[in-house]
Amino acid sequence: MALYNDTVMEHFMNPHNVGEIEDADGKGTYGSPVCGDMMQITIKVDENDTITDAKFKTFGCGSAIASSSMATDMIIGMSVEDALAVSNKKIVEELGGLPAVKVHCSVLAEHAIKSAIYDYAVKHGKTYQGLEGFDPDAEEDDHHDLEDAEE
Ligand code: FES
Description:
CATH topology: Sufe protein. Chain: A
Strand order of the largest sheet: 1-2-3
Number of domains: 1
Number of strands: 3
Bound molecules: FE2/S2 (inorganic) cluster
Shape: globular
């Protein structure tokens, strides 16, 4: 019985964008209130507000590694505003699905991206739609409809 599809397995076995950008423009870390696992994402942003590079370090399970690999692939080349719209649901869709009990792992990636962009925005005096009210230290809310499938 295959619990994980080929895309998830491929990103888990050969994750993309692993590591930390030394002179990052933004750096975000998020710890899951569900399992205690951690994810860090660092980003480089050019003068046009385009994310030119992203790297991750994940102290978490295979689904978190696959989610962060996919999420960093997705946001490289995106504008900051488009990256803010990358939800955990979109990450799971790109991965071709995750088992319901593992959907919370993809939330780490969404939140770590937002945290990295928040750090970038604060350091550069910028404001973005989608960041209003965002608190990088807040516990995850329940706005993730896919998470409901965990129950
Ligand atoms: Fe913690 Fe997957 S179980 S991130």
